[in-house]
Amino acid sequence: LAIKYLLIDISVDCDHFMALQPGTKAPNFTIDSHLGQVNLSELRGKNVVVGFHPASFTGGWLNQVREFRVNYDKFVALNAEIVQISVDQLPVQVAWVKSMAEEGEDEGTVPFPVASDFWPHGDVTRAFDVFNEATGRAKRAVFIVDPEGVIRWSNVYTESLPASSELIYELEQM
User: Fold this and answer.
1) This prediction's pTM
2) Where is pLDDT greater, at 160 or 37?
3) Burial, 70: exposed, middle or buried (Cβ in 10 Å; 0-12, 13-18, 19+)?
4) Which of 12, 148, 152, 163 fits a 20 to 30 Å CA distance from 102?
């Protein structure tokens, strides 16, 4: 009787345990976006939803931004600003925002910063510990930073997209 073993890689994706956790002071950053420069410390006094996405020009990202845009007034009513970040170059971010207008949407359709963490490559993404070294891109993640600059909620998404309703609920609990 011969017994063969089939080796299967059953490693668990534990990357979501590596991101900065609630209670941690959020790393300050200054980063360029399609709306100009964004500095996290200049947003003190507000809740800040800092989101990371792997790349622009993807269907998931498009759906996420559309939902955030539709609910943007609800975020503002909760004293929150949204900052979305990927390692794409700034011209890519600008082109992506403009491409929404080509799909029949208003060109000024993204009222929150879509920022570029291109150079130095992934510095902000690494500071939040959501840089995927294997792909050179950000993991899809969201951090809610309180008005004092402390992370109050975080999640790394491996199979789903961040939902506005989830983030609004978390902001309401603060």
Assistant:
1) 0.86
2) 37
3) exposed
4) 163
